[in-house]
Amino acid sequence: MQIEFSDKTVIVTGAAHGFGRAISLAFAQRGAHVWSCDVLADELAETQQLCRQSGGACEARQVDVSNRAAVFALAGEAAAATGRVDILVNNAGGVLGQVGRPLEEITLEQWSGIFAVNVNAVFFFAQAVAPGMKAAHYGRIVNISSGAGLGISLTGIQAYASAKAAQIGLTRQLAHELGPFGITVNNIAPGFVRSNPTTERQWEAYGPEGQRALVQAIAMRHLGTPEDIAHAVLFFASDYAGWITGQVLSVDGGK
User: Fold this and answer.
1) 9-251 adopts what CATH topology?
2) Could you tell me the residue ranges of all domains in the chain?
3) What pLDDT score was predicted for residue 79?
């Protein structure tokens, strides 16, 4: 199976490291014009450099994805530069440095902050690219949720599990709304992957026994990589997945 994206314009959010960097690089290596964004400017610049070193085209913009105006500005710039946005990968998200705490201790700001980057941002970007995709009668939207959205969060963070579940619901709803326009909307639910500073801290917090238990609970008996997630994104974004929409693909080594 050969997957190429020549002349396709792709927006990848949360591209400073981890999944977003791997996804940006995978698209750039396959001929896409990639627009990567994140709030972390230095790490985002590294992603851009890696994409260009691989021979790909990549623009990098520092964007707060919870800011609707900033989201629309990026989508508009990308569309103006290349004609339209063909593919959107909503990868930005996470726990914003929070740790698991009792329900009664959670503030409104903590709850709302996680929803802002994991759900609101997905909605804003979909809003921003939908008109162009409808006009082209073509589009691919791939949202990155988490196994936490299908079950519980290993972190114990209530807002994270809830936001990722909400993102999956939004994926299914948008798939039915946008399907008549030739736009697919799908979701990837990764298992635990050591991909960024947050997951590294989580991994260390488990200790040797907890790490062994986590790995033993995986059918494949090993952790995945950011590239494993990127490969699933490439499939959903490709023509091979043209009649697949509203789906959630668990990429977790088997549970």
Assistant:
1) Rossmann fold (3.40.50)
2) 9-251
3) 98
